[in-house]
Amino acid sequence: MTYTLVLLRHGESVWNAKNLFTGWVDVDLSDKGRAEAVSAGEQLKEAGLLPDLVHTSLQRRAINTANLALDAADRHWIPVRRSWRLNERHYGALQGKDKKQTLEAYGEEQFMLWRRSFDVPPPPIDPDDEFSQAHDVRYAGLGDDAPRSECLKDVIARMLPWWESAIVPDLLEGNTVLVAAHGNSLRGIVKHLDGISDTDIAGLNIPTGMPLVYRLGKDLKPEVPGGEYLDPEAARAAAEAVANQGR
Ligand SMILES: O=C(O)[C@@H](CO)OP(=O)(O)O
Question: Angle of helix 108-116 relative to helix 99-106, nearest 10 degrees?
Fold first, then answer.
């Protein structure tokens, strides 16, 4: 038995286009991002990869990407499950800041520590900051779980309970599962699936709007390490562009 998981980072957001740290700020897709989402759905349909169920974060760029992609694939009607545990990494006090200006102000080493180190979170955001989610009703029930900043290690710790309790059971029932989420929450899933080390994960970047397909064996280990992009060349170039943001 092979289980099929499709990971889809949201299409380009308006803040991706402006090169701003985004995290939990609930920005929408750009026109390019919407087109990427539609194209992702068309690619899924062409490849015969029709999701039975979709999991999304609570953020509109992922929700709208899933809706557009599933509509293009004629799968707009499938059941959906959402969780904050699939949200983007909370970028703390960097939320709303320009990536290039941050790199220039703090230097390459600090910038990369905040952006890609496994266990160094950016400084926490002030609850009254205009880009804080402290007063956002959708997170009102989180209590002490509500982050004010996260590193990738924190993302994996809050993502894994959803992976284990919601996504894995859906896969084991034989469903093709689509997960529409974010650069860093998906890096967490990939790290977990492929057993990537805390150091090597720094070099892994996920492009916007490109389906990444994992076929998993009985033990939920990937048949092809790293999974397979439906358009591998475009994905390689786009992942490199993500790696170079701020430069
Ligand atoms: O700003 C963010 O929330 C993320 C994803 O867009 O950026 P980065 O790739 O720098 O982690």
Answer: 130
Q: How many CB atoms lie within 10 A of CB 156?
A: 22
Domain count for the chain? 1
Tokens of 15: 């803040």
| Catalytic annotation, pick one of 36, 42, 55, 88 | 88
* Interatomic CA distance for residues 3 and 27, integer angstroms: 32
For residue 200, how far is its CA from the centre of ligand 1 (angstroms)?
A: 18
Q: Whose CA is closest to 54, among 181, 215, 207, 206?
A: 181
* 244 falls within a domain: no
**CATH number of domain containing 185:** 3.40.50.1240
Range of the domain at 41: 3-230
Residues 170-205 have pLDDT tens digits of: 999 999 999 999 999 999 999 999 999 999 999 999
The reported pTM is 0.97
ipTM of model over 0.90: yes
- If residue 6 lies in a helix (H) or strand (E), which one and from where to where? strand 3-9
Report if residue 137 sits inside a domain: yes
Which atom, in ligand 1's list, is nearest to the CA of 99? 10
The pLDDT tens digits of the residues spanning 72-129 come to 999 999 999 999 999 999 999 999 999 999 999 999 999 999 999 999 999 999 999 9
